Amino acid sequence: MDLLLHFRAFVRVAELGGFSAAARALNTSQPAVSRQVADLEARLGARLLHRSSTGVSLTEEGRAFLDAARQALDSADGALGAVGARRGEVAGEVRLGAPLAFGRLHIVPRLPALLERHLGLSLDLVLGDAFGDLVQDGLDATIRIGVVTDPGLIVRRIGLTRRVTVASPAYLAKAGAPRHPDDLAKHDCLRFAGLSTGDTWVFERAGEVARVPVTGRFRASASDAVRTAVLAGMGIFVAPVWLFGPEIASGEVVTLLEDWAPPAVPIQVATSSRRQVPPRVRAVTDHLAAEFRLDPLLTDYGMG
Amino acid sequence: MDLLLHFRAFVRVAELGGFSAAARALNTSQPAVSRQVADLEARLGARLLHRSSTGVSLTEEGRAFLDAARQALDSADGALGAVGARRGEVAGEVRLGAPLAFGRLHIVPRLPALLERHLGLSLDLVLGDAFGDLVQDGLDATIRIGVVTDPGLIVRRIGLTRRVTVASPAYLAKAGAPRHPDDLAKHDCLRFAGLSTGDTWVFERAGEVARVPVTGRFRASASDAVRTAVLAGMGIFVAPVWLFGPEIASGEVVTLLEDWAPPAVPIQVATSSRRQVPPRVRAVTDHLAAEFRLDPLLTDYGMG
DNA sequence: TTGCCCCCATACGCTTTGCGGATGGGCCGG
DNA sequence: CCGGCCCATCCGCAAAGCGTATGGGGGCAA
Prior knowledge:
The structure is a homodimer.
Chain A: H1 3-16, H2 19-25, H3 30-44, E1 49-52, E2 55-58, H4 60-86, E3 91-98, H5 100-107, H6 111-117, E4 120-127, E5 141-145, E6 153-161, E7 163-167, H7 169-175, E8 191-192, E9 200-205, E10 208-213, E11 219-220, H8 223-231, E12 237-240, H9 245-250, E13 254-256, E14 265-272, H10 279-293
Parallel strand pairs in A: 3-4, 3-5, 8-11
Antiparallel strand pairs in A: 1-2, 5-14, 6-14, 7-12, 7-13, 9-10
Helix pairs in contact in A: 1-2, 1-3, 1-4, 2-3
The structure holds a DNA duplex.
């Protein structure tokens, strides 16, 4: 009986709250997971889960075992990594979450160098602007832009997003350019549902702060969609500078209100605080942090 | 691939210095062990062992992996025990080493209560007066009588062996009784090869110390054999009181030089300091310690 | 030096473990 | 009341992994 396999099955079932869900996550069949947990319970001589037709919940024994099993899995993982770590190598799969547009524009282009450097490494990039639960999605780490306050997470700052007010020349030709943040009230402001700031935009100029409630006829939950809207001349947007790097340089979009700066937001990587970060995950986040530090769009240090 | 099984195989091979020896210890075949380690190396992409026809030795990678694998095995073991531990139960097998005579006389009779109390527990008692290597013999713990100075061991005192000078009435009728330790030089003194004191016997009386070099025509490496020799009237012996408990009470052997006491020696249980003591082992040693504390032959506290 | 024994690697046939698909009972939501 | 999702169980089959048998290599003793 492969203990670790059984441990993993149980842990996944406990995390996802069901045998079927765990089976999908583990790329196996539901009967297999069911049997593995049942065998484990037989071996331990105790019920780990309360079953119901709607799902499962942990028993007291299950709760105690869950932590121990997690630790055992981590230890085994560490043992496998110990050999490679001695040579500065990392191997294994890393599931990384990231916002859709940011991932497409700034993570994917930086992965070839990483994968070439660590030949045993494989990456599973889970893109989405809706941040789910780290553990529910089985992610090793996730990139988040903005402030994170989840106490179950360890966050590490790996970059900074300055933001600028942008619009396309076509829109400006039609609607004119704002001279002051207050002018935005008369404009079509494109809104991104993923920002915690809501529909009030904030600007700063030499200590002076302007809060502007904005309105507009388009709102999207994916920044990539808002990006397309800007390019299509649908309105004004306060965008991360990295969202329009080439377009600003080429003049395809122009920046407005340049002396009024929206507050910058941190780019962070979040990992679960329950388990220590394995070397393979560390390698990925370190690589991204190092790369971002060199990109003037993603850092406040180097303004090359 | 059952990782833990492979880990265990490798650890055993590393500890015992050979595939064949490990196979014997693991109750499996040599090819199985050979393949498991080979598969592990393939998985890790590194050689863990240097092979030679005379045995194996660890590579650098192997040394690093050995610790990690041990820890993983301990973690997995801990996970299995976590459920039972919540209920104060222990389960699993414990391999306990003990001196032959002591084990027979004072450990075996105390095991039924232990096994009845912990139904999931099974014991493998390895008896022998020659103390081997704890890890080489795959022992969880070993009982040692006398001072232990191995830095790789954690020793815990679980009793005290007072000693007395004894002989059978038949011998005394033939050779007379000594009045003073010095008289022993003229007697047949039975010697036990397992004692570190060698062939000089030490006695104490009110701070006064007598060291007597003794001679005799019988010597054995098992205290059980010396015990039989005493009963057969072959000579005088300085024996642990627990070796002749009933016989002294019945008069089958008599104590001599009662005001001259040989130094007492501790009864200790030794466990490896490399890994923490699992609950199942703890349960065994605790049980023995508690039992010994109640036996006037094995403690200096209760002289009931 | 020669012969023997013990060591480890490999090949092969077979058992056994363990998988996935199918089925059945149970509960919730529409 | 019915459809869908859940979990447990049964069954046929394939692959993993065992042990036996065999071969090469080196130390040790005669």
